[in-house]
Amino acid sequence: xxxxxxxxxxxxxxxxxxxxxxxxxxxxxxxxxxxxxxxxxxxxxxxxxxxxxxxxxxxxxxxxxxxxxxxxxxxxxxxxxxxxxxxxxxxxxxxxxxxxxxxxxxxxxxxxxxxxxxxxxxxxxxxxxxxxxxxxxxxxxxxxxxxxxxxxxxxxxxxxxxxxxxxxxxxxxxxxxxxxxxxxxxxxxxxxxxxxxxxxxxxxxxxxxxxxxxxxxxxxxxxxxxxxxxxxxxxxxxxxxxxxxxxxxxxxxxxxxxxxxxxxxxxxxxxxxxxxxxxxxxxxxxxxxxxxxxxxxxxxxxxxxxxxxxxxxxxxxxxxxxxxxxxxxxxxxxxxxxxxxxxxxxxxxxxxxxxxxxxxxxxxxxxxxxxxxxxxxxxxxxxxxxxxxxxxxxxxxxxxxxxxxxxxxxxxxxxxxxxxxxxxxxxxxxxxxxxxxxxxxxxxxxxxxxxxxxxxxxxxxxxxxxxxxxxxxxxxxxxxxxxxxxxxxxxxxxxxxxxxxxxxxxxxxxxxxxx
Length: 515
Known about the structure:
Elements: E1 3-6, H1 10-23, E2 26-32, H2 39-43, E3 46-51, H3 62-72, E4 76-78, H4 88-96, E5 100-101, H5 106-113, H6 115-124, H7 140-150, E6 154-158, E7 168-170, H8 176-191, E8 196-200, E9 206-214, E10 220-232, E11 235-241, H9 248-264, E12 269-277, E13 283-289, H10 296-303, H11 307-315, E14 332-339, E15 341-342, E16 348-349, E17 352-353, E18 356-358, E19 365-369, E20 376-377, E21 384-392, H12 395-408, E22 410-412, H13 418-425, H14 428-431, H15 439-443, H16 454-476, E23 480-481, E24 484-485, H17 490-505
Parallel strand pairs: 1-2, 1-4, 2-3, 4-5
Antiparallel strand pairs: 6-7, 6-8, 9-10, 9-12, 10-11, 11-14, 12-13, 14-21, 15-16, 17-20, 18-22, 19-21, 23-24
């Protein structure tokens, strides 16, 4: 493996490029019109244009990506997460083209992507599953009778689902038909597959997932758990490891189940087995994500294992030796997903230009991002700005470091979720570890504004004012060469704007906190 094409964008593309550098591999970025100036394009050794901004015309265009890999001389493809990462047909196409697929076998993707087939396999392998149907619903009335025997509330789910799409919670039998039709239509639009099944709804569970690595000879290992219960609209917001509810016995049982699940489907590469855990610490298989997870840095922080490097090692075909991991998670880690969204307006995306972007630093702080000052968050894709990952020796130290890091974060130009995270962090139930999946909907009304140090506000205001004034002046001033005004190309003007953006960053003082 000497040159890897990354079939993705944003922070995960940057993350894989960094791993390529560490492994001595050349990286190939791909980009749409909207990402022409993106960070992953600037960082890669090579970059190739795909097409128009809509994903169907760029990052989901299989033929174009394969042709680009050929043109770039790449011998491997890493899919990142999202887009084509769990597309079994794409993975098979990569293999058929004689390229190295840095991910699980297409057969495993296909098997675990079918929720019904996965439930059957898990039940056969001794992995606990939530009571429900093991075949697609063909007769909604007959399925309703079976669901009534299990007891309401019931969760209707898409067979090909994920990310909460095609999912409905039904609290009363009289709502069954409307919920079924609505979910079926949504699943058809999102996945091209309208098949549905049902499961008994587990009340106020914890969402806990186990990271696994599958080796090339059918052997899998567990790298502990991540607690992912802080969610809104079934989208994860904060992840941490260890889980606040975990015990050594529960971790051992869940790890054994996750390894059994991975080995049952012939899993190879990094993957995640997701479970629901009730208040009595009973756990049930939810699904398996056959890719690298957004929250993988949390596991890296408490194990010291670079999961992308392990993906490279496994895919390279050399004899794979599992990495050394500690007996228990080392310390405590949390990840905060920073989005260009407005929490006060039902998390409406707020794409736009980042006039100022300054990441926090300090002991135990890691930020994975694909942006920079002056970058424009496009309207076409997921509005994630960055992932803040904080590590401490225990949960208390991690939360303290996280509070400081969130206060130090400076983003000017778009509304972000930083303040929302700060409000969660100070909530007493979160601090006690009572992080069930209904946390946000249950306590949203109790979230209070968290004061920030006035110096931090002053810095941000001063910085924004300085940027506006200088940027306006520079943008409208004539471009000169040897003292003579010349017609300027867009590239000349862009270069001057970027130099303008760098100027105030070197002239602002540090954020000061009171102790």
